[in-house]
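User: Hey, my collaborator sent me this sequence without any context and asked if I could get a structure. I don't really work with proteins. Can you help?
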Amino acid sequence: MSPFDPIDLYCERTDPSLWAEPLNAITNIAFIVAGVLLWRQLRGAPRQKELRLLAALIVGIGLCSGLFHVFGTVWGMWLDVGSIALFILVYLHRYLRHIVGWPTWACWLGVLTFLAADRGIAALGNLGLNGSEGYMLPGATLCLFTLWSRQRKTAATRWLGGATLVFIVSLCARTLDMALCPAWPTGTHFAWHLLNALVLYCCVRGLAAGAK
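Assistant: No problem. I've predicted the 3D structure and written it out in structure-token form, which is a compact way to encode the shape of the chain:
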């Protein structure tokens, strides 16, 4: 498959033309807003400033996903998936370092273990979840982070708890996009963007609140 081949994954797109997914494209502004807000808010202690990288990565997700939904090509999909994966891995490393308190080498081992588990899930193939299979592991990890933070009574708990609840709803919106297409022609993928921007915002706020 060529990087410039058109690709149609969502209900709203009905042809390979530019702007065939206006709602899916425009709602990526939510990620940019979330990233900018975090950048402005993370300006206190040096450790919080360090987390500005995550704010920048959220803005990157909005830009890359926006390009994908505007152009609807394979290269756009690579940018979209790559930007999300990069955020997840950096966030995982930062959580293990600043909330759990692991040494650097153990944090990197945690990242490698996550990658191995992700490849294992990918090997299962299509599970009928409309491409949401790749978000099962991040969702489960977020749940574990929330439970760990709650058990340790860290300041991250309420933020991560909110993120977990919103993520469940957002994942449902992503998964049901094509199934609801006959009854709802615009699909529900746009809701994934809006809700997931809130999820990432809450995740970073939780990390900032509970960082050691």
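In plain terms: The longest helix spans residues 74-100. You can pass these tokens on to your collaborator as they are.
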